[in-house]
Design goal:
Elements (H helix, E strand, L loop, with lengths): L1 E7 L2 H16 L3 E8 L11 H6 L6 E3 L7 H21 L4 E5 L3 H10 L6 E4 L10 H11 L2 E4 L2 H9 L7 E3 L3 H7 L6 H8 L7 E5 L10 H12 L6 E5 L7 H14 L3 E4 L3 H11 L2 E4 L2 H4 L9 E4 L12 E4 L3 H12 L1 H6 L12 H11 L14
Parallel strand pairs: 1-2, 1-4, 2-3, 4-5, 5-6, 6-7, 8-9, 8-11, 9-10, 11-12, 12-13
Helix pairs in contact: 1-7, 1-15, 3-4, 4-5, 9-10, 9-13
Length: 382
């Protein structure tokens, strides 16, 4: 059987991988090897590696990195991560390594795989996020990879523009859309009981991460957002925990204080994939700068207030209202998103990120690939 190594670093990418993992697990010609690292192994983020095991998937190797939200700590973790992934691959080499997105932990794994001659397949390449230094890692991962599973035609064309062989660039759609079309959502009653959410009010689901290219402004970014949200007493405000990025503790600390001071607000440390998507299904508006607002929210026809530059450059549906960091801009955006006119304008919205068959396409291509042909990677001139 062909051994497919998958690197997962957080609850976010694990949820996107999940339909692919299930396809690989059920395949007669593919064997799953999970390499778990990053936030999965950090108690402050819920030690979500436990959820992977509860889902019934064995973990091939845990790559534990002690990361704090400072540039020095992240840079050191990149060096340590490369070393530890190399040690993991020395023990159990996959036939091909499947990586997703743009996290620095993914980059560690890809760099470590190169000396072992392990070919790499990359999901979600060709995208742009000018506000995050993840932008650099994503394009670097493209050049380290031999196979590319792009979410849209535009992104596939950008990958080809970077000198990648068109025969190895596949437009699959975003695997996160597969989850949306194949899950049974938690009810409002279940969500209210499990996460203490008041559904008697409109829900502002708020997910805000550090803008790592502007990390010196993190405090003002979160203060402006919270000042804007404080004007919406008529809504229930549901926060998720920020990613482990530079200055994430500033955001988490400010949110916790806001929640303590506002009875209509709650912070959820870890929704899990089903819980989070169920909230997208139930929310009135999503507020913040998460990729889920750009990619998954359109499938729910959910209005999204996208703040600042973190997601600048990505394709988006007409459900997304882009605003700046100022509190007044954010407030105006939320009021527009709650209006009947805007909500009604989304009736015919089609998600640009695919039809929910990405996992089928990715697993199918992995089954058919002759990996011996991928040992030497050539630059493809347009």
């Amino acid at each position: 059987m062909k051994k497919i190594g998958i690197v997962t670093t957080s609850r976010a990418d694990y949820g996107l991988y999940l339909p692919i993992i299930k396809k690989i697990k059920s395949s007669k010609s593919l064997k799953l090897q999970l390499y778990v690292s990053g936030m999965h192994l950090m108690p402050e983020y819920g030690h979500t590696a436990d959820f992977i095991r509860k889902d019934g998937f064995a973990i091939e190797s845990e790559i534990n990195l002690k990361i704090k939200d400072t540039p020095l700590s992240i840079a050191k973790a990149m060096g340590e991560g490369t070393k530890r992934f190399a040690e993991a691959f020395e023990e159990s080499q996959p036939d091909i390594l499947l990586i997703l997105g743009d996290r620095f932990e993914m980059h560690c794994a890809a760099v470590a795989a190169i000396p072992f001659g392990i070919p790499i397949a990359h999901i979600h390449g060709g995208e742009l996020t000018y506000g995050a230094f993840d932008e650099y890692f994503r394009h670097s991962l493209t050049k380290l990879s031999q196979v590319h599973f792009a979410a849209t035609e535009q992104y596939a064309n950008r990958i080809k523009q970077m000198g990648e062989n068109p025969a190895k660039v596949f437009v699959t759609g975003a695997p996160g859309i597969d989850n949306i079309l194949n899950m049974t959502w938690l009810s409002q009653e279940d969500l209210a009981k499990k996460f203490k959410i008041d559904f008697a009010k409109p829900i502002l689901l708020t997910t805000f991460h550090p803008v790592t290219m502007e990390s010196e402004n993190t405090l003002s970014h979160i203060e402006n957002l919270l000042n804007a949200l404080s004007e919406f007493d008529e809504c229930a405000i549901v926060f998720t925990h920020p990613n482990m990025d530079t200055n994430s503790r500033i955001i988490a600390g400010a949110i916790k204080k806001f929640v303590n001071d506002h009875a209509h607000a709650v912070m959820v440390e870890n929704f899990g994939q089903l819980g989070y998507l169920s909230m997208l299904n139930e929310a009135s508006v999503m507020v913040g700068n998460s990729s889920s607002g750009i990619i998954e929210a359109a499938s729910f026809k959910l209005p999204v207030i996208n703040i600042g530059k973190r997601q600048e450059g990505r394709q988006r549906g007409k459900n997304v209202i882009d605003v700046g960091y100022a509190a007044e801009d954010i407030k105006a955006g939320i009021k527009r998103a709650l209006s009947d006119n805007f909500i009604n304008s989304l009736a015919d919205l089609v998600n640009p990120y695919g039809d929910g068959r990405a996992a089928e396409r990715i697993a199918g291509n992995l089954e058919k690939m002759e990996l011996k042909k991928f040992k030497v990677k050539e630059f493809f001139d347009q």
